Fold this protein.
Amino acid sequence: MAEPVLTVRDVARQFGGLKAVDGVSLELFAGEIHAVIGPNGAGKTTLINLLSGDLAPTAGSIRFGGREITGAAPERIARLGIGRSYQRVNVFAGFSAFENCRLAAQARLGHGLGLLRQARDVRTLDKAAEAALARVRLEHGERIAGTLSHGEQRQLEIAMTLATAPRALLLDEPLAGMGAEESERMTALIAELGRDHAVLLVEHDMDAVFRIAHTLTVMVDGKVLESGAPEAIRASAAVQEAYLGSDEAAP
Amino acid sequence: MIDVYEPEPALIDARGLHTFYGASHILHGVDFAVGRGETVALLGRNGMGKTTLLRSLLGLTPPRHGNVRINGVDMTGAPPHRVAREGLALVPEGRGIFAKLTVREHLQLAARLGRHGRMDWTLDRVLDTFPRLAERLHQSGALLSGGEQQMLTIGRALMTNPDLIILDEATEGLSPRLAKEIWAIIRRLRESRIASVIVDKNFAVLSALADHAVLLVKGRVAFAGEPARLKADPALLRRHLGV
């Protein structure tokens, strides 16, 4: 099998007495959608924050493309090629969809606005922005981001991430708050992105997860409960109990 | 005059609720009812509309269509304090404990007579129910553990002598031992005929405790009925709550 794009070894993150992520290991491969699921408070978003550099792990190591990135700043991690989306929409509401994507591309290339002198660079950024919008099938890039529907804003966020030309995508609940049609469209888009990216997907919509994920990791209380193929996860009694609870807590 | 027998109206009777956050249409025609003294489990994954439904009932996020009757009176869109006066008490997911108030102050501030001037719950009775709170009576809210905070919010709700307590994420973030204590308290509420609407991820315990279950999926009711019936449908359960 190919080398993993991202290798996570025993990472942990402690907040005071709470171990939000407690010794998690996983590997992410190109062309693979790896879903991380688990009940509320299992540590899924914290895990994404560790991988994106938004939080530094208190233990463990993270390697990306053979390079140690444990504790690196988020800008550096983004530039190396890990793109992420957040649970809540993060776009510049007053700018057009196209401008949002161009800003994202610009950030990746490390240009400050004042340093952007060469026309060639402008064209490169324009092209990256256009390609990203086309990839998520968001039409009319001139529309102002704040006027887009919730589903379109989420598409735009993915486009902004793609404009930075990432190899790995970390998607935090991309289907949250979407209607049936929007969520159908987004699921198809993620499946397609999974062909040429390493995708880590945190999502509560199990229909979508089981339809498009190649590998699943189930987290409970900061730890990995099980990891494997979708069928194996579905068949696991421990996983079902993590979701449905047990009578043991009964008074 | 003919004496017509009229049964006491349902505590909550909500019909056809459509609730929005801005342009996002969250609830799509939800019906939801709670009878007197009834324990109702409100089920569904994250983001399926549970908290929005609770907010719609309480006047915190009024529905755009549909109506909410409380004790038989139309309260659609009424402000939260009026809904509270009808005997509905919320134990919110965030708990809302004040760091600068002691446990006793939290409870005393909340004290109120219930509907028809009822006073079943006094400070003494609440402290009797929660011995842990009695031990921490003069401590500030900031120094309580998560479980103690949850007890305090339930105790505070009881001080309003409510007909109905709504517990959003009843045992979220609590250790198994503390969760068990909270479940025991919920059972005592049930025994003292206080109605409740409970949101919690432990379906196994909740389904054993509740009289009625409502399962929300993408803002619609996917199941409403006896929890045992839901338990007997593994496919439905797995699809909407399990894996």
Observations:
- The interface with chain B takes residues 37, 39-41, 149-150, 173, 176-177, 179-180, 204-207, 218, 233-234, 236, 239-241, 243-251 of chain A (CB under 8 Å).
